[in-house]
Design brief:
The chain is of the alpha+beta class and 232 residues long. It has helices at 22-25, 36-49, 53-56, 80-85, 87-94; strands at 17-19, 27-31, 58-59, 68-72, 98-109, 114-117, 125-133, 141-144, 163-166, 173-176, 183-185, 193-203.
Length: 232
């Protein structure tokens, strides 16, 4: 598939730095994708808007051995502004004509690990954005060096497979091909909590284009959009 005619590594703002080649490796570290102050402001607003955050949004994903706090954009629509607003930047960083699929927020607890896994088709191009650490302790994201041909089992570690650990500060992100590269966090979380947002896109004309604007995390739940009309 030809690359979209966008710039590969634009200067989105003076504080952003891209390390690694997304096209060659399948992942890249983006330092300062958003200012740390914006990450903190989002967490502050989320906590104010969802006072029952830590009791109402409890989830138990198979990649985590205990519960986490998960909030999807269907539950908190302001979060869509990150997904939609970052789409032009992701188009330029990937060199692809992308459309957004879905995003969600997650709070991990102390000593959590995120088991090694690959993602579903709606996560063709994925972004792991770090928003905050309660104790300021970096919790690295890990991504497999080699692409996979098909999904494998969820595992506690990479075993003998080559992989890279990427340390992120609040506002930093890792851009990765979620379907093709296994990923997770095998080092126990050193913080009382850590806050992250996961955002996903697909190629407009690619094999997974049908997942565009699928705001839910479960496959097969997206409904065809209705025609837009205003009652005037």
């Amino acid at each position: 598939m030809p690359y979209w005619r966008g710039r590969i590594h634009p200067i989105m703002h003076s504080g952003m730095k891209v390390s690694g080649s997304y096209h060659e490796q399948g992942y890249a570290h983006i330092e300062g994708l958003i200012p740390g102050e914006i990450a903190e402001a989002f967490l502050r607003q989320l906590k104010a808007d969802l006072p029952l955050l830590t009791s109402k949004f409890i989830s138990h994903a198979p990649i985590i051995k205990r519960t986490s706090i998960d909030v999807y954009a269907t539950d908190y629509p302001p979060m869509l502004q990150f997904l939609w607003g970052l789409t032009p930047a992701m188009r330029e960083l990937t060199g692809r004509d992308l459309l957004p699929t879905y995003n969600y927020f997650r709070l991990y607890r102390k000593n959590d690990i995120c088991r090694i896994h690959s993602d579903r088709e709606a996560c063709e191009h994925s972004l792991s954005l770090t928003l905050g650490y309660s104790d300021g302790q970096v919790w690295p994201f890990e991504v497999g060096a080699e692409p996979i041909a098909e999904p494998g089992p969820i595992e506690d570690d990479f075993g003998a497979a080559a992989h890279t650990k990427i340390a992120m500060q609040p506002g930093d992100a890792v851009l990765y091909r979620g379907v093709q590269h296994r990923h997770g966090r095998t080092t126990p979380n050193p913080n009382r909590w850590s806050a992250h947002m996961f955002l996903h896109w697909v190629d407009r004309d690619g094999p997974h284009a049908g997942h565009a604007f699928d705001l839910t995390a479960s496959p097969g739940q997206a409904a065809p959009p209705e025609a837009i009309d205003f009652d005037l």
